[in-house]
């Protein structure tokens, strides 16, 4: 995880960038000024935090937020604190102009686009760190420090935006569970809304990282969801023994030699604790590398 003292200023950040009626602010104080006006007018605010490179999955979160709130705020910030030293921070796609155009079309009221300087100014010394069972498996095992970066940045974003509701995607199931718990633990008056996974036509879970797949890798990637569906079918047919279900899923994934499986786990969907017997309320989750791109997916049972 990069040191707070070595974070570099993001290139191209502006204090206020106008895209017709879409308000775009880089400084927290400007966002907070607008939020205060809405709160004083008793307006509700739905918040969708993103790292940009937007796709239909993000836009579905925005649409849900728009249906349930008076105003929608989105953020675009590639947070260095949640990337490990050997991860893809420098390669993560950055498409700000295209992202703003999409958000404008979806009638987002305000987009917060801070730089590292705004998020982690000189002297910044606070991190939000969670402990406990939510971090004992899945991605947390393979990405040490990742969720410390996630909780820190989202706590800061929530402090700026102060939304009525926070919208997260089920694809990042562990992240969503951790952030929901953080909000409860810190007594934040915010409702967490976790929305279903949005998929490509062939079942691949939508992800900004999909853009980094080669054509061959892109053709291979749907094997993850195909295998998860087989696991669900086995459960629907009466198989409840975790080891048997995971074995069949693994066999299917291993048919594709280019896929490097990182983990395959069956857990309670809310507590994320491993289960020996699969039952309603369980989740099967997978992480794998294709073309050296890390993809995650899950299915609820």
Write the layout of secondary structure elements.
Elements: E1 23-25, H1 28-40, E2 45-50, H2 56-68, E3 71-76, H3 96-105, E4 110-112, H4 116-119, H5 139-142, H6 146-161, E5 165-169, H7 173-185, E6 191-195, H8 215-220, H9 223-236, H10 242-253, E7 260-268, E8 282-290, E9 293-300
Parallel strand pairs: 1-4, 2-3, 2-5, 3-4, 5-6
Antiparallel strand pairs: 7-8, 8-9
Overall pLDDT: 93
In what range is the share of β-strand residues? 15-25%
Q: What's the helical proportion of residues? A: 25-40%
Low-confidence stretches: 8-19
C-alpha end-to-end distance: 34 Å
Q: Going across the major beta sheet, what is the strand order? A: 1-4-3-2-5-6
Q: Would you write up a description of this structure?
A:
It is built from ten helices and nine strands. 35% of the residues lie in helices and 18% in strands. The chain is globular. With 301 residues, it is α/β, with parallel strands linked by helices. β3, α3 and β4 form a beta-alpha-beta unit. α6 packs across α7 and α9 runs antiparallel to α10 (242-253). It has helices at residues 28-40, 56-68, 96-105, 116-119, 139-142, 146-161, 173-185, 215-220, 223-236, 242-253; strands spanning 23-25, 45-50, 71-76, 110-112, 165-169, 191-195, 260-268, 282-290, 293-300. Strands 1-4-3-2-5-6 form a six-stranded parallel beta sheet, sandwiched between helices. A three-stranded antiparallel beta sheet has the order 7-8-9.
Brief characterization of the structure:
By secondary structure, the protein is of the alpha/beta class. Helices cover 35% and strands 18% of the residues. It has helices spanning 28-40, 56-68, 96-105, 116-119, 139-142, 146-161, 173-185, 215-220, 223-236, 242-253; strands at residues 23-25, 45-50, 71-76, 110-112, 165-169, 191-195, 260-268, 282-290, 293-300.
């Amino acid at each position: 995880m990069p040191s707070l003292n070595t974070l570099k200023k993001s290139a191209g950040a502006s204090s206020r960038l106008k895209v017709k009626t879409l308000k775009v602010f880089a400084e927290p104080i400007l966002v907070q000024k607008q939020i205060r006006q809405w709160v004083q007018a008793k307006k509700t605010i739905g918040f969708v935090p993103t790292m940009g490179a937007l796709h239909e999955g993000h836009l579905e979160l925005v649409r849900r937020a728009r249906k349930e709130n008076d105003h929608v705020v989105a953020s675009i910030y590639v947070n260095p604190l949640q990337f490990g030293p050997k991860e893809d921070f420098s390669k993560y796609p950055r498409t700000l102009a295209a992202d703003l155009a999409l958000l404008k079309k979806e009638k987002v009221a305000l987009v917060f686009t801070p730089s590292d300087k705004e998020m982690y100014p000189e002297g910044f010394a606070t991190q939000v760190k969670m402990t406990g069972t939510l971090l004992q498996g899945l991605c947390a095992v393979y990405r040490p420090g990742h969720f410390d970066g996630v909780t820190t940045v989202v706590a800061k974003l929530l402090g700026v935006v102060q939304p009525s509701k926070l919208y997260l995607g089920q694809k990042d199931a562990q992240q969503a569970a951790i952030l929901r718990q953080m909000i409860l633990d810190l007594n934040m008056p915010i409702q967490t809304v976790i929305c279903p996974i949005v998929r490509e036509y062939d079942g691949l879970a939508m992800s900004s990282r999909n853009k980094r797949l080669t054509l061959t890798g892109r053709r291979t990637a749907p094997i993850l969801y195909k295998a998860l569906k087989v696991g669900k079918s086995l459960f629907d047919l009466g198989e409840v023994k975790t080891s048997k279900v995971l074995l069949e899923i693994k066999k299917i994934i291993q048919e594709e030699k280019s896929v490097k499986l990182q983990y395959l786990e069956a857990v309670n969907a809310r507590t994320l604790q491993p289960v020996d017997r699969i039952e309603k309320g369980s989740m099967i989750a997978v992480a794998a590398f294709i073309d050296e791109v890390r993809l995650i997916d899950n299915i609820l049972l």
